[in-house]
Please model this.
Amino acid sequence: MRAIVIEDDLDIQQQIVERLKSEGFAVDSTDTGDEGLYLVQEYPADVAIVDLGLPKMSGLEVINQIRDEGNNIPILILTARGRWQDKVEGLDAGADDYLVKPFHHEEMMARIRVLIRRASGWSDSRIVCAPVILDTATQRSYVDERELDLTAYEYKVLEYLMLHAGEVISKTVLTEHLYDDETDNDSNVIEVFIRRLRQKLDPEESLKPIETLRGRGYRFTLERAEQS
Amino acid sequence: MVVLAVFMVLTAIALERAVVKRALQAEEDGLQLLIYSLLAAIDRDQSGRSLTVSADRLFEPGLVTRNSGLYALLYDQRKQAIWRSLSITTDFPAIPKIEIGDWDFGIVQHQATPYFRLGFAIQWPDANDRLQRYDVVAWRNAVEYFEQLNRFRQTLWAWLIITTILLLLVMYLVTRWSLLPLKKIGLEVKAIEDQQQSGFEQDYPDEIAPLTENLNILLSREQYQRQRYRNAMDDLAHSLKTPLAVLTGLGDQGTLGRPQIDTLREQTDRMNQIVSYQLQKATSVSDIRISKPVDLVAVLEKLISALEKVYQEKAIQLDRRLPSQILLRMDEGDCLEVVGNLLDNAFKYGKRRINVTALVKEDKSTLLTIEDDGEGLADSEIEQILNRGTRLDQATEGQGIGLAVVADIVESYNIELEFSRAGLGGLGVSLRFQAA
Model:
């Protein structure tokens, strides 16, 4: 998952970035609205965390512009002003949720996960593509009640593919959503993760959950369970 | 106005009296002159025992023309008329006794006709030089006098009424015209109260202009101060909450030991509550007089759509019974704050259903009810929750100060706040807003 953090207080920005990274996110961050807008436009991120009280270009303007461009990226706003007027204004402008400063990082992560799931059409924290089940709250995964033993990156790949089940996901997109800029993003590594995931998910090769489309990418083939 | 009318009537009455008195005096004087001229023409008759009036010395033509309206008689001491003017065609009654040398003037009805009558008693020596008493009486027909008097009265009162009405009209117009600027000020004050304009915009006459100009200065100063205050509060919020956020984040990072983290969290949470509560309280307007009316229904819709977005996955079924508009005299920020906190709680604690009802009662007060199907609250919990800074549920963000802020704003606007068990099973909150 890739997140963009736009926060002008560098201490808070750093804390958020660290927390996101420790949860396996690839993170881009900035302290200005202009640059934030640029990041959102240029990088296919899964969530944007925007502080409303930015200097010069305000958070509200950033959100307005993102939405004006037809970008549906989930946006979580951070605001020091806890008044409902400000919250409603932010949500009205196109934000999806808000957090009033100061906030606990667990709360922030919970909200971010909800936003990402919601964006892919899941309202439950459990993503089910029978027989594969992914619990985004606990970050555990199961196949027919059997818990899988996945590494952090394997989990991230599986989560991304399952959230976009049925869609073709290119190697580049996967890389972008998994890695920071600075990391060496060798696409061969993705192939390794996919191979390992296939082995763990489907040791008997009876499910074939991940399909390779030559030159185009991968597709999670198992169908989503109907929403309860 | 009334004073003027009374004054005019009194003036007219005094005028009329003066005129009547003057006219009567003139009649009396005229008859007196006539009697003097009669006296000048009196002479002994041929017998020498009695008196007569010699016609050739009488210069009053009315006395010699029949029925002229002017009559004169001369009586002796036995009240026998010894001379009658030629104008007389009927009998005139004798007059009561008069002292010698006295005048007796009056208006007398004779044969259904009003007359002025003047009597005068004289003594005249007879042939033996003995003084004999005689009465000279003059009558004048007063019909024309009364007709004239009536005409005068009619004219007087007609003109009086016309002038009074004209005067009153002019006074009314002048008053209205001179009070026009004050009326304009009243309208502008109303517009300022409703926040349709920020100060006095119209031109006023020189007498009033200093007043409106000073009021404008006062208003703009007040607005400036209010804005400055709000900005200062925003800055304060930002500059207090940012370091608090850093501290909170520090506690969440896990680099510290468990006991330190707990202490840090506890303290930062407490600080946050105090700061948030005081800031919310400070920015609340609570002054309905300068507030532009806010549409409660629009506020509800705005909040519901925002909260439905935030609590999307709860898929809450919200039933609303709202009219198209309810205007309240309240600051929009305060209204959003109160309703926002209550609705947020309903979304937070409700399981599947929320009912929102707003209606205007017969006494023009507005009743807003928000019900959820959550666990509800015990009386003791409600009591606790309304006290500032008390947190019922540490895990739920924002809960602590939300209702305390609501309680504060509600109190300052004199809004009745009641908690009950909702028909849906959870908490029911009702707000009664006084008539705008």
Summary: The longest helix of chain B spans residues 143-193. The radius of gyration of chain B is 51 Å. Chain B touches chain A through 40 residues (CB under 8 Å).
